[in-house]
Specification:
There is one protein chain. By secondary structure, this protein is α+β, with helices and mostly antiparallel strands. The chain has one domain. It has helices spanning about 50-55, 60-70, and strands at about 10, 20, 25-30, 35-40. The protein has a two-stranded antiparallel ribbon with strand order 1-2. The protein starts with 8 loop residues before the first strand and ends in a 7-residue tail after the last helix.
Amino acid sequence: MPKKSSELEIACSYCGQPLRSNAVHARVVRDAQGEILYLHDRPNRRGNDCYDKAKKQLPETELERLRRNLIARGVIASQ
């Protein structure tokens, strides 16, 4: 069965397991060096919540700035 054109295979930057671009529980953030990270935001089958694990290594101000930007653009919902 062919994949939908809106579905894109991206690997999680933390655990290497696949993410999908249309997944609700995924985060896109920048690390301290400016590289873009794609992370699981909810526990997957293996119990990994990669965003929570990785955010301990990321500067809080950069995370909050990116989150506000994504909310303003309507990419994610505010909680």
